[in-house]
Amino acid sequence: MSDDKNEKKVHGIVAEYTSVDTLLDACRRVRDAGYTKTDAYTPFAVHGIDKALGIKPTVLPWIVLGGGLAGLATALAMQIWMNGINYPYIISGKPYISLPAFMPVAFELTVLFASFGAFFGMWALNGLPRFSNPIFTDPRFDRVTDDRFFLYIDAKDKSFNQAGAEKLLRDTETEYINTVVDDDTSTVIPKFLITTLITVIALSFIPLLVVARMRVTTSSQPRFHIFPDMDFSPARDAQQTTSLFADNRAMRPDVPGTVARGELEEDLDYLTGIDMESLTRLDADRAKQLVRTYAQAENGEPENSDATPKTDAPAEEKSVMDTTPWLKNNPVEITKDVVLKGQEQFNIYCATCHGRDGRGNGLVNQRAQQIMASSWIPPSSMHQESLYAEQYPDGKLFNTISNGIRKMPGYAGQIKSKDRWSIVAYVRALQQSQNASLDDVPKDQQAELKAKKADVEKALAEQAEAERKKEEERAAKAAEKE
Amino acid sequence: MSLAIPNGLDNTVERPGERAPLVLGDTTYHDITEAVCQVAERPPGRGWIFGFLVAFALLNWLGICIAYLIYTGVGVWGNQAPVFWGWPIVNFVFWVGIGHAGTLISAILFLFRQEWRTSINRAAEAMTIFAVACAGTFPGIHVGRAWLAFWLAPYPSLNLWMWPQFRSPLLWDVFAVSTYGTVSLLFWYMGMVPDLATFRDRSKNKWRRMAYGILALGWTGSSRHWMRYEKAYALLAALAAPLVLSVHTIVSFDFAVSQVPGWHTTIFPPYFVAGAIFSGFAMVLTLMVPARTMLGLEKLITIRHLENMCKIILATGSIVGLAYGTEFFIAWYGQVPEEQFAFLNRALGPYWWAYLTMVSCNVLSPQLFWFRKFRTTPWLIVLVCIFVNIGMWFERFVIVVTSLSRDYLPSAWSYFHPTWVDWSMLIGSFGLFFTLFLLFCKLMPVINMAETKSTLAKQLHMKHNDEH
Q1: Chain B within 8 Å of A245 (Cβ-Cβ)?
Q2: Is residue A441 in a domain?
Q3: Would you tell me which of A84, A106, A333, A379 could form a disulfide with A96, CB atoms 3.0–4.6 Å apart?
Q4: CB-CB neighbors (< 8 A) of A145 in chain B
């Protein structure tokens, strides 16, 4: 107890003991002397010391009980609400609120919350963590966690007076008594620690801010996928390529030898657009070959397409295409429905190239012109005499759609035969529409149409008249000004 | 009367009317501090470094395999129709089982006032936590989309707009294992705080002192603190004891609540718990026997400790053997053809080799512990325990795979083939386990010093009384 220590605030007096028995003895004496604000510090829990010091039992068990009950209530409420009320559904024929099935979780949460009660309750009651404690200033106190026992009398005790307490302790079996004073070691946290901490905290906000920003803004970019989550189907679209097949086409043609639903048709005229009777007369071999080809297709053998008159070579084309006795007329009975169906199919399959009006300026053509595709051959216009029914029989048009011609691909794989015939009917209607005269319109509608025409002409004339007047006025105004 | 031990360090001989000493030699409190602290304070030895490098390499391998799994999908495992619960679940149940001994030793033996637990409980608890960590890994990645494993938690999800299904044993399992992991961690850490304070007070290095100081929470050893601490410890032990029994019970529900023949049995809960204790103790011994020699703790972890654990292994191993027999009896007695087939298939079907391994390792090998020589010779103990570990892994394999590979639909029957990823993950999980355990040995107090000292105090007290 040197003098310099006296200047600091005195917290209490501590004495050191080397064994449990001497400590217990000292405790009893201190207790009997009337001190209550005392404490013993030991390396392990010494039994009997609470009595020797007069320590009251703790309320901890009640906290644990409360924790356990809270856990039980939470678990039951949670399960009943989640599975029985908020999102009820039947599992294994059990009722929505099936208590037996809720027991395991109820048990686990009871234990968990009770354990939290025991753990956190104990530290809270003990006032820990507490890192700065005056008792740590005692130079020998480090041994409390090794092999020494300390008895401490707090200065706040009502009956505390330093000399008296010291004397009391000196009478016990101790060799070391010391005054506990304020801890004056700096409690300032090193600067670099604070800077690092602040930097880390600040940086940790960046991802949060980014996320928050992303959540409130829209973006034209596709969603950012950390994990693909099966959002992307590996299935390819019809227009895409794939490495799975030798021809790199994702869209698969019919497997050779298979017949699609609704395609089983005995009538070869209907399937080919060729008048088979005439063909047999003209060219028996080719007719036989065609029959064989289609028969094989139905029997499941690979199709031999040699007989179909598609070819890329213009020289050869002439002979085959021209000698073939094409069906003159559409074998399908033409009704409004058929033509409308044909229109629909034409607009789906043909209009992209040939345009809706059939003049050959579809979107693909426009794009090709725009990028000046060098190998592009413009799709033919439907409105040329060579394609009219007289020169270009229905059967031939059907064949062109089915098997393609020169640069145009065939559509037999995509469009059903019936629909191809519908397209033929529609193309005829289209051709007609672009070259029609009033006489082509049914009589009863002619008058109506004439009236409409008159209306339109009148309207146009009025418009022209109005424009002219405006022009005159403008000219007059200009003249006045001058 | 003195406690001098006639034949060297043998405290396994029972002398009537006298308690065998649990701390050997003329040990003082300070000796205990020294013995335990030197483990952490010494620079790591060659054996430790080598072991750590091996374990750490395996851990990394596990990490790579998990990354590969997450990147590619669960098809990298051997799990295939009809065995969708392959090795991941086998490994899970295996590790959870091992994780039972620690808390059992700490809690149940504490409640039964088995004081010999004091010097082994810390390491056993650490082992529990590491085993639970290994166990938790497997269901976590077995869910397939591991990054969504948090969907298991009942939180108000904006993506799902629904809640977990609380009538499923799989969800009970989530709660059981996570509660168990949490409570074990609290229990372990709480038990360590006074010893961490010892580490703090002995640290010369400023940073070390600060680190241990923070972990020790400002522990002073105040009697008032000790009083509440002891109370909390006893309460936690009382809570952990039923908890530890509930965990493997609920794990067994994963199987028993289903309709699969060979799983749908009421004996599963007690049988699983016995098996868990059995495997847990075997693992504790497998670790502790070499560790006590390497870390120089023979005076604290005595042969008597080892012997006691061997006896527990013998008892639980016999219970497990009885359970195997009972299963067959019930299959016969119950007269359900599917059940009968399942059990015959288990023992004599295509997986007969697994069943044979299981029975010989789990039922036959622990019977050696009837002989005192086997219970008191360290290397023989380790040998038997390794067999038990192998056997217990096979037990889970037998249960999971034999039942699933042949259930009600014979056209779906097939034989299970593990892949290299299955193997790697099993071995890698040992890497995780040993990495954590070796770090623990080097950084934390491996033995509960405070409790061992209080055991010594009682021993001294008795001696003191005897002398008077």
Answers
A1: no
A2: no
A3: A84
A4: 33, 194-195, 197-198, 200-202, 219, 221
Task: Flag whether pLDDT at B69 surpasses 70.
Answer: yes
Neighbours of A396 (CB within 10 A): 23
Residue B156 lies in a domain: no
Give A158-191 as a DSSP string: TT--HHHHHHHHHTSS-SEEEEEE---S--PPPH
**Number of domains chain B contains:** 1
- Chain A nearest-CA residue for B249: A104
Q: Is residue B152 part of a domain?
A: no
Nearest to B221 by CA among B188, B185, B199, B193: B193
Same domain, A370 and A284: no
Q: H or E element: which one contains A478? A: helix A443-481
CATH code for the domain of A395: 1.10.760.10
For all residues of chain A together, what is the average pLDDT? 82
Cα separation values, B208 from A314, B205, B449, Å: 92, 5, 19
Same domain flag for A90 and A157: yes
Picking from B450, B465, B22, B457, the residue whose alpha carbon sits closest to that of residue B220 is B450
In a domain, B255, yes or no: yes
Whether A350 and A297 map to the same domain: the answer is no
pLDDT on residue A229: 67
Contact A147 B232 (CB under 8 A): no
- ipTM score assigned to the predicted complex: 0.89
Domain membership of residue A467 (yes or no) is no
* Token duo for residue B111: 């409640």
Q: Tell me which residue range forms the domain holding B312.
A: 6-146+164-467
Whether residues A177 and A276 share a domain: the answer is no
Distance from CA of A383 to the nearest CA of B (A): 57
The answer to whether A58 contacts B239, with C-beta atoms less than 8 Å apart, is no
Residue A447 inside a domain? The answer is no
Rg (CA), chain A: 51
**Residues B81 and B406: beta-carbon distance below 8 Å:** no
In the block, which residue shows the tokens 């004091």?
A: B118
CB B181 within 8 Å of CB B95: no
What is residue A405's DSSP assignment?
A: B
Is residue B6 very low, low, confident or very high in pLDDT (cuts 50, 70, 90)? very low
- Nearest alpha carbon to residue A254 among A88, A402, A428: A402
Collapse the DSSP code of B86 into the 3-class scheme (helix H, G, I; strand E, B; otherwise coil) and give the result: coil
Query: Is the same domain home to A281 and A352?
Result: no
* A403-455 residue pLDDT tens: 888 888 888 888 888 889 999 999 988 888 877 777 778 888 888 888 888 89
Partner A contacted by B223 (CB < 8 A): yes
A412 in the same domain as A307: no
User: In chain A, how many domains are there?
Assistant: 3
- Paired with A179 in beta bridges are A13
Asked if the C-beta of B459 comes within 8 angstroms of chain A's C-beta atoms, the answer is: no
Query: 3-state SS string over A230-254?
Result: CCCCCCCCCCCECCCCCCCECCCCC
- Tell me how far apart the alpha carbons of residues B463 and B468 are, in angstroms, rounded to a whole number: 9
d(CA B173, CA B89): 12
Give the range of the structural domain holding residue A276, as residue numbers without chain letter: 268-311
For residue A397, what are the CA distances in angstroms to A352, A362, A421, B115?
18, 19, 9, 101
- How many interface pairs between A and B have CB atoms less than 8 angstroms apart? 198
Say if residue A291 is in the same domain as residue A342. Answer: no
Closest Cβ–Cβ partner in B167, B198, B220 for A133: B220
Does residue A161 sit in the same domain as residue A285? no
Greater model confidence, A434 or A243? A243
Task: Report the residue of chain A nearest B220, measured CA to CA.
Answer: A41
